[in-house]
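Below: protein 1.
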Amino acid sequence: MNQTIDTRQFRNALGRFASGVTVLTAPYENQTHGMTANAFVSVSLDPPLVLVSLDNRSNMHRILPLVRRFGISVLAEDQEPLSNHFAGRTVPGLHVRFITRRDIPLLAGAVAYFVVEVIDIHAAGDHTLYIGRVEHFESGEGNPLLFHAGRYGRIREEKGRPTQWPEDEFSLFSIGSVDPPVT
């Protein structure tokens, strides 16, 4: 079935999936380079692998194959100005503070950090998928910055019971071959 896809409508539909916001950072030519990305996912717990998807036109797409190691900072809900800055929307007077872990710059104040070594690269249309082995990670308190339908958002604190499956530790991914009945 050949169907013409309206790329703008497709992008809008993809935007209905809420995500966190990250900034990728890498040292290159004596300078820290950074890029906002919300296409970040876990791939494997053992070994610890993550994936980022980068537009082939991005500067970071040119840098990562050369440096092979980079940082991922999961932004806190008050770091919207940093997201805008690293998305190419200059924020006048913004002071960017970095911390360093394993010689990789990361954004101070983020809710989680990952230092990653690129282990696989896959071309995928107008993007490239970078799979990385996590060398170091940290997480802290606070809520992440969210992105949905072209807008930033925050987690609304819910009052209620925790999940009835505490052993899943915040995961909604099924493990094993569980297929619930469909009636």
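Below: protein 2.
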Amino acid sequence: MLIKIINAVLAVLGGVGGAILIFFVLNKLAEVLPGKWEDRVKPYLFLLPAFLAIALYLVYPTVQTVLYSFANSTSTAFVGFSNYGDLLTSKDFQSTLFNTLLWIIVVPTGTIVLGLLIATLADRLRPRGEKTAKTLIFLPMAIGAVGAGAIWRFVYASNPPGQKQIGLLNGVVTGFGGDPVNWLQLSTGRVNSFLLMVMLLWAQAGFAMVLLSAAIKGVPTETLEAARLDGAGEGSIFFRIVVPQIRTTLITVFITVLIGVLKTFDIVYVMTNGLYNTNVVAVDFYNQLFTNQNAGYAAAIVVMLMVVIIPVMAYQIRQFRAEEAAR
């Protein structure tokens, strides 16, 4: 334990000290330059470490992954578009894509609806009650996906009939005289996938609530009072006045959750490892690379995922810029 602490302290000191040393040397190099060249060159020298890090840890791996996606399982020979063709015609991968599409549709939409509902109701409480409620709802954000999986296993746990049920759902089912259900293997109608989505909704609802609550509080009270004086009901005020004015925040939350959903791995891997029709793209990539030892398929999956994510991120950046310009 002591060795681990010492290693951690040395890592922190080495990282911080190394960064200070790099910028000290770069600053000295800039000071050597004559006249105005120092001021012209210094900003680029200070940006150089960041650019090198991006090139080394982002650009190079991306290019290498794209190249590997056209290679065989051992990345020793090019096979053209064979990996993409085999994946897209595979029934298992088609099922994975369909399941991922369900996650994309259900989780971000459900997060927005839950976040709006909780934010609206919590804002009607007294200050102390509002703080307590929001704190409790936000707490799952502090729990890692593996920890969340351990918690929800006790919700979905199933024992054979006749034995004591420790799972919450099966406790309710057997309490009303029903037979226990193995929820995580209930692939009919992809019920088990929707049950896994509930876990992510539970974790992300607090995030959406915080941002949407702040946006709702930012709606001018004069606008709301004017609408009430004109005879508008609370429902009309909410959907015709509040929602349009928090549209940018709604889009930001939706896209942020959507990007997280596209990268969902931990929950599915810990709970089912993608079995019983619960597989998603990120888990399929992991299994192709580390279980099946097929680097070509794995790289092709990553490239397809990247192609989907890039337009979403570009749209999000445009929204951020539009929001900044409006301010």
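The chain has a mean pLDDT of 88.
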